[in-house]
Amino acid sequence: MIEDTALVRARGLVKRFGDFEAVRGIDVEVRRGEAFGFLGPNGAGKSSTMRMIACVSPRSAGELRVLGEDPDRHGPRIRARLGVVPQQDNLDNELTVRQNLHVYGRYFGLPRARVRAKAEELLEFAQLTDRADDEVEPLSGGMKRRLTIARSLVNDPELLLLDEPTTGLDPQARHLLWDRLFRLKQSGVTLLVTTHYMDEAEQLCDRLVVMDGGRVVAEGSPAELIRSHATREVLELRFAPGGQDAAVPLARELADRVEVLPDRLLLYTGDGEAALAAVQRRGVQPVATLVRRSTLEDVFLHLTGRSLVD
Fold first, then answer.
1. N or C terminus of the chain: which is more exposed, having fewer CB within 10 Å?
2. In CATH, what is the architecture of 3-221?
């Protein structure tokens, strides 16, 4: 690979907090123009990694280059070229929507005229033009999130870091935000996203790493990971409490792999409907059944032995 195609390159990256190692020697490469994701549960090391890339938390060991430079030596210069969307919105609630953009733009030393013009462009992008003169406090969660993202774009960043961008949003707000992020990617902005939502990773990411316990346990495109670590379909069998134990041996005969969860059995198979018919012929009577395609959550369950929402 040509050197300058990577906006982020980490080798053996480590982050320690006292005796606790939050990030345990990971290798990551983020290419220009792609949407790259960190997928994993809370505590996997995603946010600690993002903070090192954002040049606000020094690495404990390993190599890290962001935009071709060393964060330890050139942190301010790198930060001027980044956009950062933190996990929690940190907007100024006493200012209007437009004023939040103006004030943030001035932090970068941009001329007032340029900041004003950029603010109007971003208000339209975030679909907040009609709320521009409203204070932030009464806005919905989705509107605040879009404003936070708009604010992160004031300096025309080359790399946009988004830490859990849609946590707490309703489905409609999530889809609107996904659309805005897809448009950004289409315009050439490189996205680096952390999430514990598997559908979000599948929607947004060209490539991703699955993290668990501070380590990278798999890497690839969503489709590649599903193809490598799961079957085409999954049959879910739900039972009354305590009723699934007897069905486990049969399930293992009918599927490539079986995961036993507290409330259901997951049968991994190339043909879910055929597996369901076989279950019914054997006289097994679950309370409910579902045939679905495999997802990144199934990948994570296979790699770590637990669900993403644990």
1. N
2. 3-Layer(aba) Sandwich (3.40)
CA distance 225 to 204: 15
3-state SS assignment for residue 57: coil
Q: Which helix (H) or strand (E) holds 255?
A: none
Dihedral (Cα; 239, 244, 247, 252), 10-degree rounding: 100
Cross-strand bridge partners of residue 237:
265, 289
For residue 211, the SS3 value is: strand
Tens digits of residue pLDDT in 233-273: 999 999 988 788 889 999 999 999 999 988 899 999 999 99
Strand partners, 190: 159
Q: How many helices (H) and strands (E) does the chain have?
A: 11, 13
Q: CATH 3.30.70.980 region(s) of the chain? A: 231-293
- State the residue for tokens 């013009």: 117
Q: Judging by DSSP bridges, how do beta strands 215-220 and 82-85 pair with one another?
A: unpaired
Picking from 37, 139, 152, the residue whose alpha carbon sits closest to that of residue 85 is 152
Token pair of 39, please? 């997928």
Q: Coil, strand, or helix at residue 221?
A: coil
Q: State the Cα–Cα distance between residues 195 and 66, nearest whole angstrom.
A: 21
The DSSP letter of residue 60 is S
* Fold for the domain defined by 231-293: Alpha-Beta Plaits (3.30.70)
Q: What's the whole-number average pLDDT of the chain? A: 92
CATH 3.40.50.300 residue spans of the chain: 3-221
Write down the residue that tokens 């220009």 correspond to: 32
